[in-house]
Specification:
The complex is a heterodimer.
Chain A lengths: L3 H23 L6 H22 L2 E7 L3 H17 L3 E7 L3 H11 L8 E5 L3 H7 L2 E2 L2 H7 L8 H7 E2 L2 E2 L2 E6 L1 E6 H6 L11 H14 L4 E4 L4 H9 L7 H5 L11 H17 L9 H9 L3 E7 L3 H7 L4 E4 L15 E8 L4 H15 L1 H11 L12 H9 L2 H10 L5 H4 L6 H16 L4 H22 L3
Parallel strand pairs in A: 1-2, 1-3, 9-10
Antiparallel strand pairs in A: 3-12, 4-12, 5-6, 7-12, 8-10, 8-11
Chain B lengths: L1 H57 L2 E3 L5 E4 L3 H8 L1 H32 L6 H9 L6 H11 L6 H8 L11 H29 L3 H9 L4 H29 L3 H6 L11 H10 L4 H26 L7
Antiparallel strand pairs in B: 1-2
Helix pairs in contact in B: 1-12, 2-12, 3-7, 3-9, 7-9, 9-12, 11-12
Classes of the chains: A alpha/beta, B mainly alpha.
């Protein structure tokens, strides 16, 4: 034992060193959350030091933007801090939306709670129910701030009975990315991407025929995409107008609408043109960039990343819809900023000032071009940065066009309920079982049953 | 007479007095003992017993998103669990996972420890290599395996395809995902298990082998009759710890599969995490946690009952 001890110590030392470099390598990846938190922690520490020395009003801002989004956000926060003397905003990365929300729930009401937290759209109902937030409407009224300049579809999602609870910030919708070079090789028109489910199937077959090493289409098993594909055919996710007129009591889509997506996927699985990446979006992206699959659905927030990194010409198209259905459009995805209750007035006022800064056309233009999220303030599209970027990457514009082509209805306003994260997982499981050759009817029926049970359970927990 | 009559109460009195002192002494000892135990009682109380009691309490309620109890539902959370195919699947996956990982880890580690125990030139290098996975964090190891398992650009599928075999959907095919996670786990646990077993081997007295040599015993006879029995305390420890670790696996699941595909790798701790921190159903999550506690308690009890009898302590 004595002899091996120093050797082991040496070994451990070497591998701790190796791990250190590993985690810094990961930090661009979602999976490396630990590394990122560390990095964020050091940033915060240095941020706080400079904040103390100038005696500025400190605002703590929790966000969930990793990778390119984090860089773009930090640039915006830095420019805000440099633009004035009174307020110091400390942006802290707190992991994914889920993780940040969990952390927030455990510190809500204490001094450790942030001033602003960024929360995903499906967390809207839980935030309102939590009682630890101040509706943004109070500041809008007190300040006489005009929200009508914001994108109409965004206003539709975030105002409930005419009240804004949170400040919209980063919004995206799903789009279909496709490989233009592969389309050309397969004899398809790269400027006319498939629009319906059947057209996607046909295009996939053509792709596989021309290049057996490439799959046609990939659909990440992601509940959000399922919701979007429902909305695009005008279907509701939850009854009672997607939970906007009353608390939902069961699912809102019909069997025909719900199953159309499953059948579509099953057809492609049977054709051998479907690429299964399970629930892992990063793998799907890597597969697309490596030329293993020619089309996939993903948030428009990734568009800048994809365009920059693809060694081929990337096309961006509208979300496909089933035959015989009008395209209804998409639901706003992304996140908004919430003002936390119980902070000193000076601090919330400073936070409100920062929120207003984020809405300005200049900031939104930078944000849109840097990430692919929308500009929530349409004036941003007139900015020179955006015009230049469109010149170079016309694909970015498709994401905006799709949003503006959306017809406003309960379906495209999106669903509101606190059990949606659970519902997403249920749909993901069902989709995955079809990807792996499972029976569509069985998978669909189980999913609907579990979905309804989850709604019941959530209502019961609130004592209804 | 008078002497007698006074003497009896006197003895009784001293008896009472003696009892009193004894009792006083006992109480004093008790408090003294408690004083020594206080630090650990406080620590265990705050970080172990209180959460335990709180978890049991929560498991009888429905909660809101912040974890406050809202409606008392009695045993309903438990009843729902046993009628939920998702939870039953996760119990099944957990046991399968233990079955896949524990024996393989120990057999490979034992093999490596035995060959690394030979006195050869440069053996230190191999000992370092074999124990090296101990120094790698779960997150780093999982990310590393995530790329190996990648369906199209991962090394494993590239090797398979080079050999003319179709690639496997390591993390997307329900038939393979649990095996893929098991491989990762075995690889990660190997270092620690190897180190403990090698330590156990090194502490076996060499005179046992010398006398066996004099008697003309062969290599495998010595292995079976000396090495394994003398190693049994280390083996027992390693088995217990590995089983408990396997039941509590979380990190690699979160990074590799998030419980998918089709819940094939939704091991019980991950299922608890999802229920509590994604679905915000703290009641049903607590019920799962209580069941996990009972399962581990039974497993450990059985091990001590059955396993420890075979352990040879020197």
């Amino acid at each position: 034992m004595k002899k091996i001890f120093p050797i082991i110590m040496l070994g451990i030392l070497l591998f701790i060193a190796a791990c250190g470099s590993d985690s810094s390598g990961e930090s661009t990846d979602d999976a490396g959350a630990e590394g990122e938190t560390e990095a964020a922690a050091t940033e915060t520490a240095s941020g706080e030091e400079s904040g103390d020395s100038n005696e500025k009003q400190v605002v703590t801002f929790w966000h969930s933007m990793g990778g390119a989004g984090q860089e773009a956000l930090n640039a915006i926060v830095d420019s805000y801090n440099d633009s004035q003397e009174e307020v110091q905003v400390n942006a802290e990365y707190q992991g994914s939306y889920d993780e940040a929300l969990t952390k927030f729930n455990s510190v809500a009401g204490t001094d450790s709670a942030p001033t602003i937290i960024q929360t995903f759209e499906i967390g809207t109902m839980s935030m309102i129910n939590s009682g630890s937030i101040v509706p943004i409407q109070e500041f809008i009224d007190a300040d006489g701030y005009d929200m009508s300049g914001l994108e109409e579809n965004i206003i539709n999602y975030y105002s409930l009975d005419g009240t804004f609870y949170s400040m919209p910030f980063n919004s995206s919708t799903p789009v279909m990315y496709y490989n233009k070079d592969a389309f050309e090789e397969a004899g398809l028109d790269p400027e006319a991407p498939p629009e319906t489910f059947a057209e996607v199937e046909e295009a996939s077959k053509a792709i596989v025929e021309s290049n057996p090493d490439m799959q046609g289409f990939a659909l990440q098993a992601y509940g959000w995409l399922y919701e979007q594909l429902l909305a695009n055919q005008g279907a509701l996710l939850l009854n009672n107008d997607n939970g906007r007129s009353d608390t939902p009591s069961e699912i809102g889509w019909s069997e025909e609408e719900g199953k159309s997506i499953f059948n579509w996927v099953e057809n492609m699985v049977n054709d051998g043109t479907f690429a299964n990446y399970g629930t892992n979006g990063d793998n799907m992206l890597a597969g697309f960039l490596a030329g293993d699959v020619s089309m996939f659905l993903q948030s428009s927030a990734n568009s800048r990343d994809v365009i920059d990194n693809a060694p081929f010409e990337v096309g961006i198209a509208f979300l496909p819809h089933p035959e015989g259905k009008e395209r209804a459009g998409v639901v706003i995805g992304g996140a908004s900023l919430w003002m936390i209750d119980g902070k000193p007035e000076a601090e919330t006022d400073a936070a409100w000032d920062f929120m207003k800064y984020l809405q300005t056309p200049e900031v939104q233009a930078e944000w849109h071009v840097g990430t692919g999220y929308f500009a929530i303030n349409p004036d941003a599209y007139e900015e020179q940065v955006v015009i230049d970027a469109y010149e170079e990457m016309p694909q970015l514009q498709v994401t905006v066009d799709q949003l503006q082509a959306t017809t406003s209805s309960y379906a495209t306003q999106g669903a509101l309920m606190d059990m949606i994260p659970e519902g997403r997982k249920i749909m993901e499981t069902a989709l995955e079982s079809v990807y792996n050759g499972g029976d569509v009817d069985e998978a669909y029926n189980t999913a609907v049953e579990q979905f309804n049970h989850a709604i019941e359970q959530a209502n019961a927990a609130r004592g209804n | 007479m008078s002497m007698h009559s006074t003497a009896i109460p006197a003895t009784a009195g001293s008896q009472i007095h003696f009892d009193k002192v004894k009792r006083k002494q006992r109480i004093k000892n008790f408090f003294k003992g408690m004083l020594f135990l206080l630090p650990s009682i406080v620590l265990f109380g705050v970080f172990l017993f209180y959460p335990l009691v709180r978890t049991i309490y929560l498991s009888f309620f429905l909660t809101d998103a912040a974890g406050n109890t809202t409606v008392f539902v009695n045993w309903e959370n438990y009843v729902n669990l046993f009628s939920s195919p998702v939870f039953l699947q996760s119990i099944k996956s957990t046991f399968l996972f233990v079955l896949y990982t524990v024996p393989v880890t120990i057999i490979i580690a034992l093999f490596l420890a035995v060959i690394a125990n030979e006195k050869l030139r440069g053996i230190g290098l191999f000992r370092t290599l074999y124990s090296s996975t101990m120094g790698i964090s779960v997150a780093a190891a999982s990310v590393f395996w995530l790329y190996l398992f990648h369906p199209s650009i991962g090394l494993l599928n590239m090797l398979l395809e080079a050999a003319g075999i179709d690639g496997v959907g390591w993390l997307t095919d329900p038939a393979w995902a649990l095996i893929a996670v098991s491989i990762t786990t075995i690889w990660m646990n190997l270092g620690f298990t190897f180190l403990i077993l090698l330590g156990g081997l090194q502490s076996i007295d060499s005179y046992l082998y010398e006398s066996a040599d004099i008697d003309g015993a062969g290599y495998f006879y010595k292995l079976r009759r000396i090495t394994i029995p003398m190693l049994s305390p280390s083996l027992f420890f390693v088995i217990t710890v590995t089983i408990i670790n396997a039941f509590q696996t979380f990190g690699q699941i979160d990074i590799l599969t998030q419980g998918g595909p089709v819940n094939a790798t939704n091991l019980i701790v991950y299922s608890i995490y999802r229920e509590a921190f994604v679905n915000y159903q703290f009641g049903s999550a607590s019920a799962q946690a209580v069941l996990l506690f009972i399962i581990i308690l039974i497993m450990t009890f059985l091990q001590f009952k059955i396993g420890e009898r075979r352990v040879h302590y020197q």
